[in-house]
Write a structure and sequence with these properties.
mainly alpha, two-stranded antiparallel sheet, 2 helices, 2 strands, 28% helix, elongated
Length: 93
């Protein structure tokens, strides 16, 4: 569909305003539905604290770990921490 057709259907006579609305709609659609997502699994290692994130990562949508309290091995989301932890680490990092 061309910009002219959208302008005729919506009753907008100003081209700049129509283009602004189209760009705004595309940006909102991008925020609502994530596209080009890739699932990466990294196995946890004993006594390892930091893990490398793939360089092509732009936005991390979810971090999950296997819940050890169930027999089925379901993965549970880890909530995002906004604040610094109240309890300090023993290694001082």
């Amino acid at each position: 569909m061309k910009v002219q057709e959208i302008m005729e259907r919506s009753g907008i006579s100003e081209t700049g305003r129509a283009i602004m609305y189209i760009k705004d709609a595309l940006e909102e659609m991008n925020l609502i539905s994530e596209t080009h997502t890739k699932r990466v699994r990294i196995d946890l290692e004993k006594d390892k604290r930091f893990y490398d994130i793939p360089t092509e990562s732009i936005k991390i949508l979810d971090v999950r770990c296997k819940d050890h309290n169930n027999e089925n091995g379901f993965y549970k989301s880890i909530p995002r921490s906004i604040y610094e932890p109240d309890i300090g680490d023993a290694d001082g990092i």
